[in-house]
Amino acid sequence: MNQPMNQNLQPKIKLNNGHLIPQLGLGVWKASLAETQQMVKEAIMNDYVLIDTAKQYGNEAAVGQGIQDGFKATGRKRDSIFLTTKIFNGDQGDYDKLRQAVNEQLKKLQTNYVDLLLLHWPVNDKYNESWRALEDIYKDGQAKAIGVCNFNVERMTDLLDHAKIKPAINQIEFNPLIHQPKIVKFCRENDIQLEAWSPLGNGRLLSNDVIKQIADEHQKSPAQVILRWEIQQGFIVLTKTTHPQRMKENAEIFDFTLSPDEMKQIDKLDQEKHSIWYDKFKWSGNPDGVDDYIGKPGAF
After folding, report:
1. In a domain, 56, yes or no
2. Residue 120 labeled ligand binder
3. Does residue 237 fall inside a structural domain?
4. How far apart are CA 195 and CA 184, in angstroms?
5. Is residue 156 part of a domain?
6. Diameter over CA atoms, the chain
7. How many alpha carbons fall within 13 Å on the CB side of residue 101?
8. Which of 6, 16, 77, 284 has its CA 20 to 30 A from that of 186?
9. Euclidean distance between CA atoms 156 and 144, whole angstroms
10. More confident call, 9 vs 65
């Protein structure tokens, strides 16, 4: 049975290839298989149509089944959702290996294409060859758009020097505690859309006095204020929750606006500190023990 679309979740952003992406979506990092399947189903039932996963998360199969469950519950079809997955670091650098890996990922997701395919990390000496494979995947229709994650200015510049197709998106860590202004400015100047992972800063800001005061003034939650701060800057935002009520709450951010002064107050919280584990990756792609994460849902 078809459900009426929630108008709050209608805003979309046009990528540099013309493809439209919803501005608010659901990420499934650190979710177990059972949690992932249920949260994806619940997300679709609550009109979330952007779903973001990755091979590294170990839960693509659960995402695929959750999507099918959501379709059964709502009557939706494949073209009504925007599905993103990512290339695992260990599959980078080898054209044939990467393409085979993507075929396997699509099988797990129960689809013959994704709307967005991203390089998960800029692995040294491998990302340009990996990008060549993504360009062909895009040309063959297995991905409607292609992009990257965690690229800084140096590596994005190098990629653009070698690429035939410009990345549509750079997915980066972005929240009031880390703004990454150099790469944000570079991407905007080069028509590369920005997408925020860890938009709530792993929950570290939910008890912040500045955020709480602004939230009280708007009769909103601290999480809603933070997400609104990112939305107003034009970011695509990926939230993560296993609770249906919080999914609904996270979506209720299009009925209020933060003032310029409130935006500046939140801007001042910047510390330019990455997540505690971020430097483990650096640019080598496979830090010690990272292979142990594959296939284990809940891994980063």
Report:
1. yes
2. yes
3. yes
4. 10
5. yes
6. 55
7. 23
8. 284
9. 21
10. 65
Q: Does pLDDT of 10 surpass 80?
A: no
Side chain identity at 260, as an amino acid letter? P
Burial label, 78 (beta-carbon count in 10 A; 0-12, 13-18, 19+): middle
Among the listed residues 268, 199, 201, the one whose alpha carbon sits nearest the alpha carbon of residue 227: 199
Q: Please list, in sequence order, all residues whose beta carbon lies within 8 angstroms of the beta carbon of residue 278, skipping any fewer than 6 positions away.
A: 173
What is the CATH classification number for the domain harbouring 21?
A: 3.20.20.100
Range of the domain at 105: 8-202+230-257
pLDDT in tens, 152-208: 999 999 999 999 999 999 999 999 999 999 999 999 999 999 999 999 988 888 999
Predicted TM-score (pTM) of the model is: 0.90
Q: Is residue 298 part of a domain?
A: no
Report yes or no: 154 and 184 within 8 Å, Cβ to Cβ: no
* R_g of the chain, CA atoms, integer Å: 18
Q: What backbone torsions phi and psi does residue 202 show, to the nearest 5 degrees?
A: 55, 30
Q: What's the number of domains the chain is made of? A: 1
Q: Which residues are catalytic?
A: 57
User: Which residues, listed in sequence order, are joined to residue 170 by a DSSP beta bridge?
Assistant: 148, 194
Exposed / middle / buried, residue 245 (Cβ in 10 Å: 0-12, 13-18, 19+):
exposed
**Cβ(87)–Cβ(101) below 8 Å:** yes
